[in-house]
From TrEMBL:
Organism: Carya illinoinensis
Signal sequence annotation: 1-30
GO cellular component: Golgi apparatus
Protein name, per record: Hexosyltransferase
Pathway: Glycan metabolism; pectin biosynthesis
Subcellular location(s) of the protein: Endomembrane system
InterPro entries in alphabetical order: Glyco_trans_8 (IPR002495), Glycosyltrans_8_dom-fam (IPR050748), Nucleotide-diphossugar_trans (IPR029044)
Pfam families linked: Glyco_transf_8 (PF01501)
Amino acid sequence: MAFRNPSLSSLLIGLLSLLLPLQYSSTTAAVGIRLGVIRKPSPDVPLFREAPAFRNGDACASDKIHISMTLDSNYLRGTMAAVLSILQHSTCPENLEFHFLWARFEPDVFSSIKSTFPYLNFNAYHFDSNRVRGKISKSIRQALDQPLNYARIYLGDIIPAEVKRLIYLDSDLVVVDDVAKLWDVELENKVLAAPEYCHANFTNYFTDVFWSDPTMAETFKGRRPCYFNTGVMVVDVEKWREGSYTSKMEEWMVVQKQKRIYHLGSLPPFLIVLAGDIKGVDHRWNQHGLGGDNLEGKCRSLHPGPVSLLHWSGKGKPWLRLDSRKPCIVDHLWAPYDLYHSSTHSLEEY
């Protein structure tokens, strides 16, 4: 495991080096805590069972698959489940390299990842919240306003230059198929690939202020813009850097602060800049909306068709609904991946 953050003070680096080795991967001998349940962390960080080791099949080459996710205590339980699901369904789990983005220094979060997945090959990078604090305007749900929610816009700046391509995933999902199939999607010279939903009313993602301004309304001229969810994306990070996509999105975030042209956090800048100009991916790779809408989070059913990835986007999160003893039916599909040590969820229990 490696930490990368040139702006972090030497004091924090020193503290971190005591907690975790500077390099840690699936090929490194296990170091540190190796118990079934990790040591008791701070009250904000739950305890997790240690996951089994997942090894490559005989036919695996050495090609890496890069996966990026955010990392914080609020969504750590979801992150743990997501990582477990990815490893469990991967033919070549040792080829996976995770890139976690963090905004707040939480040593217990990092040690939880290491001790829950002792063989995991991962890096952690600091996202400076100051980059977006003056650019975030209030959305319809507080969780969407957190600076770390905007880190996906800065992947090209944060991820090392040697990483040319990666899969970005939210923490409220589980993968039930080999993630290599998503990795192998042909981008066809596009900077981004994701499932598109062209049946959605695209105009709903922006305010009347946006559509009534002739200049802004012309933004999509020459494109057929379709909604896509930014919680599941294959990104050509090299093209992202070359095309200055971070700057393009920041420009729209500035407009948003001045005129309020949308309501949904970090999603609309992606839509403005890229909708209608991405590579569409089969819908099986993002069965999204399982958390319900952004205000009430009511239960929803699966969409028809095959499923490779289940995504609890929306207000309702499966771990919270399961703990409340009022789960939705789809939450039982998440429960088998829950590594929370006191969790007793099972399909038979409800």
